[in-house]
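Hi W.,

Here's what went into the run:
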Amino acid sequence: MARASAAEPAAPDPGAWRQRHAAVRAATVALAQPLSAEDCALQSMPDASPVKWHLAHTSWFFETFVLERFAAGYRPFDPAFRVLFNSYYNAVGPKHPRPRRGLLSRPSLADVLAYRAHVDRALDLLFARVAGDPALAALLELGLHHEQQHQELILTDVLHLLSSNPLQPAYRDRRYVAPPATARAQRWLAYAGGPTEIGHAGPGFRFDNEVPRHRAWVAPFQLAARPVTQAEYADFIDDGGYRRPELWLSLGWDLVGAQGWTAPPYWTREDGEWTTFTLDGRIAAEPHAPVAHVSYFEADAYARWAGARLPTEAEWETASAGVPLTGNFADSGALRPLADAGAGGALPSQLFGDCWEWTQSAYAPYPGFAAPPGAVGEYNGKFMCNQYVLRGGSCATPAAHIRATYRNFFPPEARWQFSGIRLARDGN
Amino acid sequence: MARASAAEPAAPDPGAWRQRHAAVRAATVALAQPLSAEDCALQSMPDASPVKWHLAHTSWFFETFVLERFAAGYRPFDPAFRVLFNSYYNAVGPKHPRPRRGLLSRPSLADVLAYRAHVDRALDLLFARVAGDPALAALLELGLHHEQQHQELILTDVLHLLSSNPLQPAYRDRRYVAPPATARAQRWLAYAGGPTEIGHAGPGFRFDNEVPRHRAWVAPFQLAARPVTQAEYADFIDDGGYRRPELWLSLGWDLVGAQGWTAPPYWTREDGEWTTFTLDGRIAAEPHAPVAHVSYFEADAYARWAGARLPTEAEWETASAGVPLTGNFADSGALRPLADAGAGGALPSQLFGDCWEWTQSAYAPYPGFAAPPGAVGEYNGKFMCNQYVLRGGSCATPAAHIRATYRNFFPPEARWQFSGIRLARDGN
Amino acid sequence: MARASAAEPAAPDPGAWRQRHAAVRAATVALAQPLSAEDCALQSMPDASPVKWHLAHTSWFFETFVLERFAAGYRPFDPAFRVLFNSYYNAVGPKHPRPRRGLLSRPSLADVLAYRAHVDRALDLLFARVAGDPALAALLELGLHHEQQHQELILTDVLHLLSSNPLQPAYRDRRYVAPPATARAQRWLAYAGGPTEIGHAGPGFRFDNEVPRHRAWVAPFQLAARPVTQAEYADFIDDGGYRRPELWLSLGWDLVGAQGWTAPPYWTREDGEWTTFTLDGRIAAEPHAPVAHVSYFEADAYARWAGARLPTEAEWETASAGVPLTGNFADSGALRPLADAGAGGALPSQLFGDCWEWTQSAYAPYPGFAAPPGAVGEYNGKFMCNQYVLRGGSCATPAAHIRATYRNFFPPEARWQFSGIRLARDGN
Amino acid sequence: MARASAAEPAAPDPGAWRQRHAAVRAATVALAQPLSAEDCALQSMPDASPVKWHLAHTSWFFETFVLERFAAGYRPFDPAFRVLFNSYYNAVGPKHPRPRRGLLSRPSLADVLAYRAHVDRALDLLFARVAGDPALAALLELGLHHEQQHQELILTDVLHLLSSNPLQPAYRDRRYVAPPATARAQRWLAYAGGPTEIGHAGPGFRFDNEVPRHRAWVAPFQLAARPVTQAEYADFIDDGGYRRPELWLSLGWDLVGAQGWTAPPYWTREDGEWTTFTLDGRIAAEPHAPVAHVSYFEADAYARWAGARLPTEAEWETASAGVPLTGNFADSGALRPLADAGAGGALPSQLFGDCWEWTQSAYAPYPGFAAPPGAVGEYNGKFMCNQYVLRGGSCATPAAHIRATYRNFFPPEARWQFSGIRLARDGN
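Here's what came out:
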């Protein structure tokens, strides 16, 4: 997941802070509401964390980076949590090993919720000081964006956990019923290329990896008007997509063999019909909805099969100009990508929401990138190796969290996120 | 764990069956009582299972081997459980992989308890038929002994889980306070050897691996009057026990290096003082209590260091003649080995309870051994390879479960059971 | 491989020593004669060693255990060899890791042969002192038996190496043509059982693991008159032997799945006809010859399929009484098991030579076993865990090396030795 | 290693072809000349190949891509070699697994040399047709550049093999004595940045990954005038470079811990003095010579420690303008990086030769990149994932092989190449 560092947001009045803080924090707890304490305690693979861990770690973040520094006399809820819920900040000290996050039946879910309340009460005393203290404001702001990132991870991690259970249970009782929609035929939108600028500028929060805004040169290119659908991806499978080495990067082909990939991870075919596992349990495939949960390797192989390629970050960001920041985010309640008839105009549809879109760009520092000093500097920079950038947010991303300049990143083999495919090609 | 097959116990009247069944089944649930649903759901290593899994699997055993066969019209609680809670019976069909038992947040603990009640209700209808149906009686009997084995595993597995938590939580609220006791100086008891017979004979339940009773030849030997204590084992450590390859079997020495063993798994030394992790949390070492949680490799290395060796099964069983079946079992509530002043007479003390005692005997079929037909035949026989026999029961064994002929078995590297050391030597 | 410790052989005159020493040492070099330096340098798996390593290690054994102690002023050929060619003697000091024996292009094969000559020249000066120095005599004797063990390993290790080459090359130019023979129908020979003695006694060399000779009790049993043939084993395969879990030990069944076993390692079926890879390259299966290269797990599964079991050590040794020490050993030049019409009398045929025969006995110390002091004590004792005893020698064993009391041992998964199956069953 | 595809070189006359072909092919064989057949047969890790394999594979390349297509009636030397010496071309068919290249004692080194001669004789008949057949010319040209890549790998792989031998043998008899030289103090050279073009254009051979030449935008930057020296790298070590997580990429820090890195792989410190293992065996560190054999992770960590960063590909190529293509290549015979006083002017020194220089650029297709059709298209494109670009050639690169636009690439953990560090920083 893209991770953040302190910027300099405008500092609103204490009441507004309090309100926004409460809303974001409550949204996290609300995600755990359909789950039992047992559901929240388990870890289904090292990449995923227990829901309870997410609930605690996001509080740890405020405790460690805000309360320890700004709240004189703050008494930690439990000193042991400093190690237990440290994710990866070496500068903070030791950390509980990531693959062992699922061994913690204690603290209980109830204790973790009490921890959250303890931290929130202490934070409440600080909001009055925000206006006069930009460093405090920046870290509080960072904490909220960090919290939103973990909201998305709660959904993707619990999806993975439930998918690992042969009973194939659903995350919630009430199933979301998708409105009927038919994806338009694929179209190509042309872009002239030339010198451009990408990266964030101006006011408003951004992570450190989105700046500096800088010049880049983009050759003329075309971008697909919409993401690849499940039906199109099924065609790739039926055409031997997982059996033809010439379509794959070498490392990807090795994985296809070693792990026996024959379809995206949550897909199953029975009697010729595809089903997919979702937060509503196993459902029939939705042919017009975007395909999700594909690795970079699968996205790249699909693109090669389709005679196209993945876009670069710079192309994607160029094409996002003028596209409204709307889409099927977590707020819609669908919690899966949806079919969309699209707008049919000159702008790409579904660029935001539904699925993160793999770019062909390796995750790297922008020219002039500098990690902030201190532990917060570990937020993003140290992960800039062997990962690829994804853009646009997904059906699990809070709507308020996304931006056109937002850079998410995952290793090319990652499949448990809502990651999909947008095609590009050269020329115009 | 030693596992059982159908013998031919005397079949008491239905009321007695009902009562004993209820008592054994309730004892299992009682073990889970101090634990939260979260505690019961986690799996800390592939060898250990979640408590919830034990609660379900023991019911599965009755459902699969008794109800499916004897209860006409029985409706399973959930057909999916047939796979989910099959431990290792290939003849029953597919099974959920052992290392993935900790991925099951559903069924919930409450659902599993309902499953237990469902099975018990159905069994209740069968007790009236027991007297007339020896096969039914045998399987009901086997089911209870199987249940008791899992009672012990619940304790050892939850101990391992809690030990994996940096918070080092205790299993229960009220800590057991051990009465003060001083182990007597070690003594050697001499046995003449010669032709003997070992194995179970006569009425009463026994597992298939305890028969046939058969002739064996035992050379003259001596057996230590009591188990090795924690203080004695600490001397071994202080004398470089974990740094001297000449004391170790080759495979054991490899493990010492690969896993960095320097003491038994639950031991920690701080400021020169040993502590041990127990079901009451971390406590000061108890120098006069038997050392537990040692692997066969450590038991063997200790014995070599002490100028002795481990006893054979036949020696151990020979020495058990006349020793009363009493000791520090789970029923005492201590749930850890205790110091004992011993009796000082001609019989070994603490032979039963406290710790299972490693023998030097590889787990092998007795001459004439035959596994029962059908799935129940998988109970014991197929595990007779690369394991070693332990005798005598432990502080986690139900008192009613143990016999002098009882053969428990674990791989030589296993350390999470209450396994300790009784020395032997040649001659008299 | 069975490994040895110092006994007290009769010390013959220097000339006889010199002659026997020269013969044994020359036999080792002769085994390498058909091979190139490249053939001798490679290591195909951690269990197997390069031929060059065997040539050097056997010299290291004499250098370290004889010359360092008895040859005043001896100058080592190369001091670095003390570490490089130490197999597993911790008391001697560090050792080059076993899986890295195949990384040594230097010393060259020529240098290793020079090393052998250097050691032999130094040993030559000692033979005159043998008669007066039993310790020297014992170690020289041990060195020769050790050398013979490695002669067998040279053949099995090079067989494995050549089998790993897709070109499937032969070890030698001239192929051995087996005389036509038809195995007799299988028969059972009955033994009364009762008290018996096993183990070595009297003069003549024996390894430390063969003593003390001691009492044992053997129940009445029957032993198959000859080993299981390739045709019989093919029937087991055709009857689904590798697909039926009920035939297998649990650990064995895991291996069948994990490693995809469907036949012994050197067997291939093309167009319905079995071939086997031998030191003469790939040849048609020989249905009347004993099956070789089966693991303990396969031997045990075959026996269960056949309604029989493997013999114990004590049974095997009991049945060997009166059987002449003759058979198809390495000296025959066949270098593979051969069909044999058998004798048809009261004694088992092919008990010696052809294939080592798995027993069901775990490799354990005999009652009263004591490893010799010093590094030589590491020869056998420390390997007495998770291995099984094989008896009788094979087509790769020097004829002069074998005895009825000889205990070879390998882990139950080992398949690269000439290991076969002799059935037993209860009663008479 | 950078790998190539067919371009359209000028086709010189047959005599010139013949001469160049003979020279390049002979140079490969000459590299093996100091080595024994044993040296040539071993494989020290999956990334490295036996010298014999390189000798064979480069011939396989000509046989498969040239002779099979252009030489009517060509009879392969051995049909089995088609599989045995296929490196990674899926379109050609099956291939012998890379980690098993060291199991091939046959074909012998002599047979492989005969294979080379066989292929060369067949190629000889084709040179007369080159002028009229651009496709033939392109593949012959590609074959020679491919051969040169393997010349470098022969040196790096044999260095790794010899370093794995505790005897620490040298590659050759005559040791290279470096002329005394003192590296100048480090200086920064400034570049204005702006729009630029990178990639190959015009005539002359290039691999497919060097084209199309295309526009890029480079921000103002500075480049270090010379590579980082061994003395400077030793300062990094002494300053705790391998113990400070804040200097490292997250994946790199994981490796430091998991593999216990404390210095570059061939460095050892004894009594406070560093030595390095080279093709001349172990020698004293040369403080003024460039550090080599560092991974991308170490290069990046060093740069961060030094307050700098690694250059991008575009920066490096920009700075190479006007720099003559001279340096310490394999042709010098040094076979290790050498100290150099540098020129002191406006151009960077040691940009070519000595060490490949890690760039911070992930290996990715240039805009408009298209892999050639057919098996040759697998040469480069499928490796464009999780690797980083290196530039400039090394002391093991043939001088005639390198270009300013040449893109070598390795995974960030690779250390066995002559890979070093050139620093960059922002601004001017």
